[in-house]
Amino acid sequence: MPRQRRRRRGAPRPGDGAPVPAGPDAGQVGPVDLAVVGCQGAVTVRIPGGESPGEVLVRVRGTNELFIAYIDEALNVGNRVFVHRSRGGRAVDVILIFTEPE
Question: Could you give the domains of the chain?
Answer without folding.
Answer: 40-98 (2.40.50.140)
